[in-house]
């Protein structure tokens, strides 16, 4: 641009035909570059593919699928910037070429700063093809959201954390029964009567019982105090997030050992997860739990919460 401006000023001042010819050449390059860049961005669609799991503070991979709906012309040198609620992505995805009526998958790594829902808004597609003189940009609306789990940390029972979260990882044995695994089997001698599935028994004509998971049969309760005291500062918030991360790690460890697990707060409780199952129901609950003001009245417990409360 500076070179074109300088040649233009020199041509006007001197009246030299060669300088006018050179000025026309430079202006035509700018016009051609702008037109080709605009044509490259036409007919493009972007689809986002999010990972199945994502943890706060840990990198996860996001795929961007570029569709070129043009009939004949390929798209060249596409740079894609994904924009979410926490700002644009630190790394951009780049595609060299997308043929006509084709698609190309690219991706980038992202790190979510905190747990909870991460909302994605749009994807900015840029190109400087062919000469790099003009950059054209197009914003493709692509709304989506991803639930970011707290990053599980190793549990440290007996070691108090800062603030009021020392009891967050204190296990409390439940009623001593193993949790149902969801499978049914024929009755065997010694099976307790309380495990009989009466509806299925009446349907098949013989006694059917719940198959229970292996392990010592304990239901371990992890207590989490989500009440934020008056005058709490940023140190309390950091301690609360550490307690949630440690609760996520403790739940995964206990489930792997065959224990049933639940997390109980003052106002709400997580689902009861049987031993050996995936900790995702508890991780999901921990990802969405938020501090409650100390003077806020307790929310009415749901029907399921009353059954999974601490004993």
Helix residue percentage: 25-40%
Distance between the termini: 75 Å
Radius of gyration: 30 Å
The total of beta strands comes to: 15
Shape: elongated
Largest sheet, in brief, is:
5 strands, antiparallel
Summed over residues and divided by their number, the pLDDT gives a mean of: 82
Q: Which stretches of 5+ consecutive residues score pLDDT under 50? A: 158-170, 300-311
Which structural class fits the helix and strand makeup?
Answer: alpha+beta
Determine the number of helices (DSSP H or I, runs of at least 4 residues).
Answer: 6
Beta-strand portion reads 25-35%
The sequence of SSEs as H and E is HHEEEEEEEEEEHEEEHEHEH
Secondary structure elements and pairings:
Elements: H1 2-14, H2 17-41, E1 44-49, E2 59-68, E3 75-84, E4 87-88, E5 93-98, E6 102-111, E7 116-127, E8 136-148, E9 172-173, E10 180-186, H3 198-204, E11 208-212, E12 219-223, E13 227-228, H4 234-256, E14 260-264, H5 280-288, E15 292-293, H6 303-307
Parallel strand pairs: 12-14, 13-15
Antiparallel strand pairs: 1-2, 2-6, 3-4, 3-5, 3-7, 7-8, 9-12, 10-11
């Amino acid at each position: 641009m500076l070179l074109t401006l300088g040649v233009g000023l020199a041509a006007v001042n001197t009246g030299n035909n060669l300088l006018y010819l050179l000025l026309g050449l430079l202006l035509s390059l700018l016009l051609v570059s702008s037109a080709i860049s605009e044509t490259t961005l036409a007919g493009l669609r972007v689809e986002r593919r999010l990972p199945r799991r994502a943890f706060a503070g840990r990198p996860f991979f996001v795929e961007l699928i570029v569709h070129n709906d043009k009939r004949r012309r390929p798209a060249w040198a596409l740079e894609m910037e994904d924009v979410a609620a926490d700002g644009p992505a630190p790394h951009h995805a780049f595609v060299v070429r997308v043929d006509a009526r084709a698609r190309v998958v690219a991706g980038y790594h992202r790190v979510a700063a905190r747990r909870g829902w991460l909302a994605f808004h749009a994807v900015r597609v840029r190109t400087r093809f062919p000469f790099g003189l003009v950059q054209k940009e197009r914003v493709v609306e692509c709304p989506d959201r991803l639930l970011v789990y707290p990053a599980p940390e190793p549990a440290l029972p007996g070691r108090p954390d800062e603030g009021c979260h020392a009891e967050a990882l204190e296990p409390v044995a439940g009623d001593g029964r193993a949790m149902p695994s969801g499978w049914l089997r024929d009755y065997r001698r010694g099976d307790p009567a309380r495990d009989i599935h009466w509806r299925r028994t009446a349907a098949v004509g013989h006694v059917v019982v719940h198959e229970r998971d292996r392990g010592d049969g304990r239901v371990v309760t992890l207590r989490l105090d989500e009440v934020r005291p008056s005058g709490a500062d940023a140190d309390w918030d950091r301690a609360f997030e550490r307690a949630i991360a440690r609760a996520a790690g403790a739940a995964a460890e206990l489930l792997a050992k065959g224990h049933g697990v639940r997390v109980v707060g003052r106002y709400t409780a997580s689902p009861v997860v049987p031993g050996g199952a995936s900790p995702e129901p508890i991780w999901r609950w921990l990802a969405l739990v938020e501090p409650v003001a100390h003077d806020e009245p307790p929310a009415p417990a749901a029907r399921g919460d009353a059954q999974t409360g601490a004993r």
